[in-house]
């Protein structure tokens, strides 16, 4: 099974965003993509056609992606977070996807997706005809996040991510059988995920505001639950409850995002920044604490991570 590769690097910088809009509309859904003005936009997409679905993996520098609802494309899309994290609003829910987590979105319904670091997703494009024939209840699961680190969700997530890595390295010998395995694992993953009632709009807006505030002030060492609550005019307990619904705490989330941002800087060309400078630059005020937390998160020291993952170009995407 051969992967088709499409890359913005061969396109003039001024034409990259229109080119990416055209690719997204052709292979995923009609989408609008907004990117930060202070950094170049880079993206690439890999895709392969299976017998009864398509598998696509977009990689992109930071962006906000949204749609114009009401456009039927004849498919449901399953988005699995492969690298990085993203904030998703769809199906009346707001969800933070970490690596391995996934959810369904219907291009005919509103979608708003934001990520502030380079990211890679794996998208399964599931034709509605097959959905209706095999798993009609999937249409009720739009926007319901499934965690990829436990239960049946972990089984599906690990299988899909492993299969994708094999596709990337030409080691996959599944052929048409890959699609046959995806459907029963997907059914199992959603069997325990009931169609929860959509979260209240007010709570969704608060959660999004909290996450956006954290991204804007992530490198401030003084950022904590109380400061977040004060800025938004809510109680610290309310902020803690918002994160409890994401199965984490404010402090754990802030630390994880700081570590991910530090890894992104170590993953670049390195420049003249020392490990100490990276640690303090992303909001840590204790080098030994940073190194311990980094090792717990990535399984190696910051210096080993830089040596293993260093990239030749600051603009190259994290893959």
Question: What does the model show?
Answer:
With 319 residues, the protein is of the alpha+beta class. The chain has 2 domains: 4-191, Sandwich (Jelly Rolls), CATH 2.60.120; 201-309, Arc Repressor Mutant, subunit A. Helices cover 40% and strands 19% of the residues. The protein is built from 11 helices and 11 strands. A hairpin with a 2-residue loop joins strand 7 and strand 8 (93-97). The longest helix is centred in the middle third of the chain and has 18 residues, at 151-168. The two termini are 20 Å apart.
What would the keywords be for this entry?
2 domains; Jelly Rolls; 6-stranded antiparallel beta sheet; 319 residues; 5-stranded antiparallel beta sheet; single chain; 40% helix; alpha+beta; 11 strands; Arc Repressor Mutant, subunit A
Short characterization:
It is built from eleven helices and eleven strands.
Secondary structure: elements and pairs:
Blueprint: E1 4-7, H1 16-27, E2 32-34, E3 43-49, E4 54-60, E5 63-66, E6 75-83, E7 86-90, E8 93-97, E9 102-105, E10 111-115, E11 119-127, H2 128-134, H3 151-168, H4 177-191, H5 201-216, H6 225-232, H7 236-244, H8 250-266, H9 275-281, H10 287-298, H11 302-309
Antiparallel strand pairs: 1-3, 2-5, 3-4, 4-11, 5-10, 6-9, 6-11, 7-8, 7-10
Strand content: 15-25%
Tally of discrete structural domains: 2
> Low-confidence stretches at least 5 residues in length (pLDDT < 50)?
311-319
* CATH superfamily descriptor of the largest domain: Jelly Rolls
Distance between the termini: 20 Å
Gyration radius (Cα, Å) is 20 Å
Helix content: 40-55%
Structural class: alpha+beta
Q: How would you sum up the global shape?
A: globular
Mean pLDDT: 84
**SSE run:** EHEEEEEEEEEEHHHHHHHHHH
- From the 3D structure, determine the CATH topology of the largest domain: Jelly Rolls
The helix tally amounts to 11
Q: What is the CATH architecture assignment of the largest domain? A: Sandwich
Care to count the β-strands?
Answer: 11
Kindly report the oligomeric state of this protein.
Answer: single chain
Task: Give the strand order of the largest sheet, numbering strands 1, 2, ... along the chain.
Answer: 1-3-4-11-6-9
């Amino acid at each position: 099974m051969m992967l088709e590769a499409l890359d913005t690097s061969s396109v003039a910088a001024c034409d990259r965003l229109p080119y990416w809009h055209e690719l997204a509309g052709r292979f995923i859904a009609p989408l609008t993509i907004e990117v930060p003005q202070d950094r170049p936009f880079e993206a690439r997409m890999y895709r392969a056609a299976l017998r009864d679905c398509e598998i696509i993996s977009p990689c992109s520098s930071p962006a906000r992606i949204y749609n114009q609802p009401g456009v039927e494309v004849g498919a449901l899309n399953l988005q699995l977070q492969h690298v990085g994290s993203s904030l998703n609003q769809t199906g009346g829910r707001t969800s933070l996807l970490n690596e391995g987590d996934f959810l369904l979105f219907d291009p005919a319904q509103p979608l708003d997706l934001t990520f502030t670091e380079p990211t890679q997703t794996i998208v399964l494009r599931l034709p509605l005809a097959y959905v209706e024939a095999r798993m009609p209840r999937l249409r009720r699961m739009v926007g319901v996040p499934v965690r990829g680190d436990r239960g049946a969700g972990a089984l599906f997530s690990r299988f899909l991510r492993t299969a994708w890595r094999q596709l990337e390295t030409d080691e996959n010998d599944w052929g048409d059988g890959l699609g046959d395995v995806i459907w029963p694992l997907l059914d199992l993953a959603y069997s325990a995920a009931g169609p929860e009632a959509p979260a209240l709009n007010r709570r969704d807006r608060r959660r999004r505001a909290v996450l956006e505030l954290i991204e804007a002030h992530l490198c401030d060492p003084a950022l904590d639950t109380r400061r977040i609550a004060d800025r938004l005019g809510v109680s610290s307990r309310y902020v803690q409850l918002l994160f409890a619904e994401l199965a984490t705490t404010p402090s754990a989330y802030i630390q994880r995002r700081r570590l991910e941002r530090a890894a992104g800087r170590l993953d670049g060309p390195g420049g003249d920044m020392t490990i100490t400078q990276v640690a303090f630059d992303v909001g840590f005020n204790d080098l030994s604490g940073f190194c311990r937390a980094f090792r717990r998160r990535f399984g190696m020291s910051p210096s080993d991570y830089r040596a293993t993952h260093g990239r030749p170009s600051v603009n190259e995407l994290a893959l």
